[in-house]
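Summary for the lay section of the report: proteins are chains of building blocks that fold into shapes. Here we show the chain for LPS-assembly protein LptD and then a coded description of the shape we predicted for it.
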Amino acid sequence: MGKRISRTVPVAHTLLGSLLAGASFSAVAQGQALPAEALDWQAWSQDEAPHQLCRGRYVMPDYRLPAVDNPETLSVETQEVDYAADGEALLRGDVVLRRGNTELQAAQMYLPADRQRVDAEGNLAIRDGQALVRGEQATLMLNDDRASLRNSHYVLYEQHLRGQASQLEQTGEEQYRLRNASFTTCDPGANSWQLVSSDIKLNQAEGFGTARHARLEVKDVPIFYWPWLRFPIDDRRHTGLLSPSISFSNEGFDYAQPFYWNIAPNHDATITPRWMSDRGLLLNGEYRYLLEESRGTIEGGYINSDDGSENGDNRFEGNDRWYIDAQHAGTLTPRSDYQLRYGAASDGRYFDDFGGEFGNSERVSMERLAQVDYRGERWQLDARAQGFQRLEDPLSDSDKPFYRLPSLTANSDWQLGGGLYTQWRSNATYFWRDVDERQVPEREAAIGTRLHLTPAIGWRFEQPWGYIEPRTELWHTAYELDYGDRVTDRGTSPSRSAAVTSIDSGLVFERELELRGRDYRQTLEPRLNYAYVPRTNQTQLPDFDSRERAFSWDQLWSPYRFSGADRLGDLNRVSLGVQSRFIEDATGQDRLTLGVGQSVYLSERRIDSEGDPGTLPARPEDDPSVNPLSRYQATRDRSPLVTRLDWQINDRWSAGYEWLYDDQREQTERSSVDARYRHPAGHVVNLGYRWEIEGFDPGVVPGDDGFRDYSREEWDLSLAWKASPRIDLIGRYLHDQTNDRALERLAGVQWNDCCYGLQLVWREWVDDNDTARVGDDFNDRGLFLRFVFRGLGGVGQEADGYFEQAIPGYRPTPL
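The coded shape description reads as follows.
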């Protein structure tokens, strides 16, 4: 049993915490590798191993010496102590020193008389709960932030990171220097990759490190060299190169190299030169800032003289192409916020050609906005100037959206007691757009002001067994218009006033039910809704923002046939429906919801986009520019029968179904079926089928990009299968059954290893060229690779966001 000595000594935190703090970059020497056991390595058990990426983990053993109340106390255990006359001490035979959470072990230690340092050698190990340092010899200055170790081995437990260094020095407070060093996140004995450098400096206070003559080795083969490299050693942001993005497609080679500039704690910028072999050099940039009461971003891109592409019509070849998107938001008072935004692109095809993941761009417009709002206890106010650049090319004048310069909104609600309530909704907007007013339909040719007031009064009586809610809303809309050079007989100060009346009611019946040994509560919920909107002449009104809505389950209960305020569709309709739910008692979850409903029309619907109450929409054979179903929709006696179903079959399988069936023509108008599989291990399968009759959406007419002159039939299969903790398989196939073509094909594999990750994806998709014609569509395809060295970074295009969108329910394993 060794001697145990406890005494308080003014030992600086240098002993272990300082040394290991710098090891967050985990460097390691070029000498003999230590066995895994010497690195505090603990292999997983047979039961745990199949579920882990790594073969084991780093675990610190228990402290050799117990903790004491005073963290400044230096506890010593040794087998032999030799004291010299001047006070020098030599400790030998498995010496252990502990101070706070730091423990130092060595074969022997020397303490000079002034006790200013410790010289330790022989089987040296330093642990502090976060890291392990081993070496042959160490000199630790007890009252100064300096230390030196030779032939060191390092482990960071939580980061799963280890390394070596022939010489480690602490040169100041939280300043370290490593010579002939390397590090890796691979398991002991499995150096799939490592970063090696002749000279590494670590600055823990600033959170970064620098390396000279650094090289990346894969299986001991050098594959990349940096004369000088700056890298982060914690989560703080630092100026330097980020992971590049590389992809190959039928358009050629695409390489992007981001550079991050940490300007200040609340300001940063990312500059990304991007080289595309078919188009040239594109420069992207993003600047972000965070102030005390506001925040914002400015981003943009520019390419000088686009070289064109092998696909498409290359109508922008030789042009300078660019975009800018600046956003700023802040707080004026606790009840008031504001937003500013300006977005613009050189052309409508910019993001189709340069933006998005895997050739996919979700941007459909660029917003311009200046807004301020107020949220009071009674009133909600909003003032804004807003506009959009629609990202389509070609883009006709009719498809250009109107600017709101400005738009002022004031809303309020009052509860009067006993279920009685009133509402006030109001808006005043000036609409403007830059078009040739002689080249657009007459109802779209005007610019001007619209005042829209919709006060409402209603009463809602509600009990657990049901409810009834009568409601009346007055629509008053007035305009001041300017038709410019357009010759027209339309008035410049038209107005419209009409009341929207509805009665919504429903009952709820319940019963207890047992199915397959489980208790359920089944509901039966019949619903009856009546809506009346008088037929009002709106031929003099412009069309700034209205569009007729497609029919759906929600439209059964809504009195509004149009979005926006320029058109108020005439309606005299009774809707009937019934819904039943099966609610599992044990979990409260809706296991099955089934609903069916239909509207019965008591009069024709004459108001369409023209607003004429005296005529019906033209027949398609008389006017090919109208929606082919518009006249039938206006004269039918009843709506399609709407059926919907949501079924949680079990904890893994669920299904959804919607069917709109015209029982007069005995024809399906729209249907969709979805089956979904979710496995606790992460397996995902989605199968969907969609059918829609030509012209089903009355707001889309021939010539619009959203219009298809055929009945649309598609089916969609997507899956993500975690074949093992290391392997994810992903795929998607979207098929256009009508035109017998694949809209998208995607197949990929992701390999997840303990210290690296690999993502390889092939994708082929159809680009519709921003037109409604199938004939000018073309296929695009690409092969995309992403490789990540865990703890160092990666190369390739980040794809997780796209996968989550394309394969609902899939959560990619982070690379």
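Put simply, here is one thing we learned. The chain has a mean pLDDT of 87.
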